[in-house]
Fold this sequence. Notes:
Helix content: 40-55%
Number of helices: 9
CATH class: Alpha Beta
Shape: globular
Number of strands: 4
CATH topology: Rossmann fold
CATH architecture: 3-Layer(aba) Sandwich
Structural class: alpha/beta
Strand content: 5-15%
Largest sheet: 4 strands, parallel
Strand order of the largest sheet: 2-1-3-4
CATH superfamily: Creatininase
Distance between the termini: 38 Å
Amino acid sequence: MKYSDLNFDSIKKLNKKEFILVPVGSIEVHGPHLPLGSDLYIAKAFTYLIGEKIRSIIMPSISYGYANITKNIFGTISMDFSILASYIYNIIQNLINSGFEKIIIINIHKDNDLTIKIALTKIFEETNMPILYINPYNDFSKFNDSIFSNQDNSYKETSLILASLEILNKKDIIGKIRFPEHKYKKPSFLKNLLDIGYIRYGYTNEMEHINPEKKASAEEGKKYMSMVVDEITSKIDYLEDYIKFLKNRKKIEL
């Protein structure tokens, strides 16, 4: 069920027990041939697969994200950090005011992480309502070795992009693959710093963010997505338990 397809009468009849799924993406360069909306398409594909297994309403996508790492590459569109946090906050606040409780954010774009967490933390502090945020790319690294055989992030992400485009019937938007003379690797000093902590960096050309991967596998991508979706849907009902727990605790405190 899509939120945008509902009308006044149909949304009033809902019992508000449905899961609300909010896909969040970004518009940024992914190599020379993959679509600018790659992160969005992965989020939408995960949302679609999860929505098939649970009673849910899929919200219109939040297409734009905070894409600071790639903002200097032609084609990327990056939202201001605080504007994006406020945008997400306002959408969730409206859903809560409409009576929805089981709200889930789906995002794989790493630069959106902190923005989303800031918005959801503010919601929780003001309403005592926990919003579940799932990053299917980062939160399920335990499946990496069994699926991607220790391949690098470019291979993994490209496989997920190819899989998502197949799921969404959008394979035809992939461009012609073009390879650089030398595969981009982060400078050793930067890689070593990232191994021990966080430090800001940025890309300057289309070959740096997601190296073109000739052998990336849509089948491996779909296998990973299936395992992640099974894991999510096996535990997702605990969100309702947590909401009830918080409500009961609030009553006791009062």
